Queue: 3 jobs
Job 1
Amino acid sequence: MNIGTHSDANLLKILTWLSPNFPVGAYIYSHGIEFAVEEGLIRDAYTLQNWIEGVLTYGVGCKDGILFSETWRAVIEKNDVRLLELLEMARAFQPTAEMEIESHAQGNAFIDAICAAWPSNQLNRISSYLKQDNKNIPYSVAVALVSAIHGIALVDALTAYLNAFSSNLVSAGVRLIPIGQTMGLKVLAGLADTILTVKEISLTSSPKNMGSATLVVDWTSARHETQYTRLFRS
């Protein structure tokens, strides 16, 4: 199978697409961290790092990583039927309404931005196919889809995606606890081994192995929907 290409041009693309400044609105989502801070479940850098490690290893991180890998391969294999199956699977695994919005809003915004600045007939065709019946495209599926179309190596794209996801959660924690930028960087540095482990698991696992064991994370997301004072949408 074609595994994509390591090149300076592809590196520039993936760095740009997963930059905090890319217009997907990632900064307005906390993945339930806002309510966890209010409840005292996340109090400092240590508890923030433990929380994100759990999300990566047992929750959305690993689930999205597997979907990312499978989506990338389906695009390379030109298997549109498989893509649609993965899209439905991704939707089915959203545990709360706010997490669904978090994923779908970023996914749709990502596709729209790429189509505007990096136009591709193949992307237009596939995204139109996936969006039939006004369906949304989850963020992990969107980034994997675009990465494969542009020939970016799976391992590079997946690593960058998991790191960007983690960075956004750290950023939310920095603002909410608050812990300051330096402690936030220490948390992100401490997550490196977990990110790489989840990447390896995602590359070799089947969707049959997908699951979630982050009930408290899901609970905080659900409770956030009715939180009285909120800075974030999730």
Job 2
Amino acid sequence: MPVASAVTALLAVAAEEEFDPNDVTPGVEGFVITFIVMAVVLLLVLDMVRRIRRVNYRAEARERLDAEERAAAGGDGSGAPTERPGGDAASDLPPSKPE
């Protein structure tokens, strides 16, 4: 019963205290800080999207250049491994699981 009486006393003291809205609201400063954090996050997301697009465009350009080089060298452009002097074409492939 000591726990129940302690909880009852705590609730009675809490009910008697005056509610001050200035103690529980963020105020203008809180909203300004929240807006600044939101703006920084937005700028970071835009920068990340720009960098991801740049990486994708570079990969596409590299693939096109590789395809042009294969076509100029007489390859069929299918992406199939070709015989290399002194090497095995199958060595470029990932290992496969036995069936």
Job 3
Amino acid sequence: MATIKDVAKYAGVSTTTVSHVINKNPLCSRGHYKSSLGGY
């Protein structure tokens, strides 16, 4: 199973950004969602 660190490294973003995307933080931009989750 991938960790937040793995996802962040793969997407080229910080672990904080990945955490915000996972938790659907409204301050996170659509671009971060696309890069962190592949557009899902």
